[in-house]
Amino acid sequence: MSDFTATERTQVRRLPKRGVYDREAVYRILDEGLVCHVGFVAEGKPVVIPTSYGRKGDRLYIHGSTASRMFRALCAGADVCVTVTLADGLVLARSAFHHSMNYRSVVIFGKATSLDDPAAKREALQAFVEHVAPGRWQEIHQPTDKELQVTAVLEIPLEEVSAKVRTGPPIDDEADYALPVWAGVIPLELTPQGPVPDDRLPQEIAIPEYLRNYSRRRR
Q: Which residue among 12, 17, 62, 88 is least enclosed by CB atoms within 10 Å?
């Protein structure tokens, strides 16, 4: 699996040592995240829409209503920029200037294509469900032909992509290390709670094994 090639748009210029172009590392970030932000220009004005997503191979999928502004703009050929960010820690330095965050982020540039073939659309929707809860697709009522018709699915090739990652403690100016101020990192993690059954769920239906120890961490 080859690395991504840095382009004029994906080259990390601010603190370039934090740039990541390793494809597997990028995919791990995407597979752990839940929400992406989709940026595009519609009617001459910038728009950013938060939404869920799914990935299969070198394709990212987003979905929504066929009547949505995002769908209309992207199907008309608008350039798209998709970002995913994971916050891993608050970095508290001795000076205000050096406060920061530990994070992993991905930026994707490209153009989206509408999936009209029912089989391809169904495969993309499977990627959505499996992204949220791996193992669930085989258990649930899968989309009907009517549901497929009213659901817009957009495919974005993962070609022009880069990640940026910060880890570690705060980095203060040397003189500030003598200040009597606590400094360090407050780790952050998305921590799922125990599954809460629907009120209309029959008692005899047990919690699936894949939900008992649910985690967003992806290997």
A: 17
